[in-house]
Amino acid sequence: MFGTDFFVIGQISAGLSVTIGRLLAAALVLLIAMTVHEFAHNYVGYRMGDPTPRDLGRLTLNPLVHINWLGWAMWVVIGFGILGSAPISEWRMRDRRWGYFWAVAAGPLSNLALAAFAALLFRLGIWRFEFFRPTDFIFNLNQFMTLFFNLNLLLFLFNLLPFFPFDGWHMLRKLLPPREASVLESYQQQSMFIFFGLLILSFIGFNIFGLVLNPPYTFFARLLLGF
Question: Which of 77, 79, 81, 91 is deepest in the core (most CB within 10 A)?
């Protein structure tokens, strides 16, 4: 069964200053991004033959069905949290390998789609880039859409990292031949420890994730926005 989705924001997300307005906007953006992300996992899993999402009432865009409130509180306080989960099972799918692969991939791809949608509105002139100032207590459309684009693109890339329990780890497991996939599974716990070690380093000033994600982030941002 596919478990929780980690969403890591805060110091990793481009180092923008934290203001009340930005926190409010980010909370709303994450609510939308998490809901679409988890719905995508569940919907594609169901289409691949797993009835679990339907049986558990997860085929909905109601955020209350998907959200983890404790993780949400953690995110608000420290910028890191487990916001949702997708109870899909590869064992109940018609094709355990590719059915599960696409059900997992659907999550980060949905965030890429949201970023692409925001980029389309940008190209149509509906909004322009505007970042938050230290005195902002509320957000406007430009600030919200700037954050909406940035965080969804970040979530797309971050969830592709090959560490357990991220989507990228599960996708890599299904891309590998059975023998290599078994080896990867045997290092599941170590992979998670490595991730948390890198996370701690990122929060104390050694932004490893920023170094890794910045090049693909810049590539996709320029591609989508037409810069």
Answer: 81
